[in-house]
Fold this sequence. Notes:
By secondary structure, this protein is an all-alpha fold. Helices cover 74% and strands 0% of the residues. It has helices at 3-7, 13-28, 34-43, 48-64. Helix 2 (13-28) packs across helix 3 and helix 2 (13-28) runs parallel beside helix 4. The radius of gyration is 11 Å and the shape is flat. The model has no long low-confidence stretch (mean pLDDT 88).
Amino acid sequence: MNRPAKWRKYVDETFSYHDMKTSLEKALGRKLTKDEDGSIMWLSDAGWLTVGTLVSMFEELANKN
């Protein structure tokens, strides 16, 4: 699957926020702090390409642990 097709759901910031938060918490092995959570919420509206790239990197980190 190509990136635009895979990341198309990230035009909705609800999906963006959930996927970024979940993958980052898994990679870190802990819950995000209030400030970190707020930053992820802010980033969730950054556009599908930016969010998709970040989620992919967070998932890669999470799967290395």
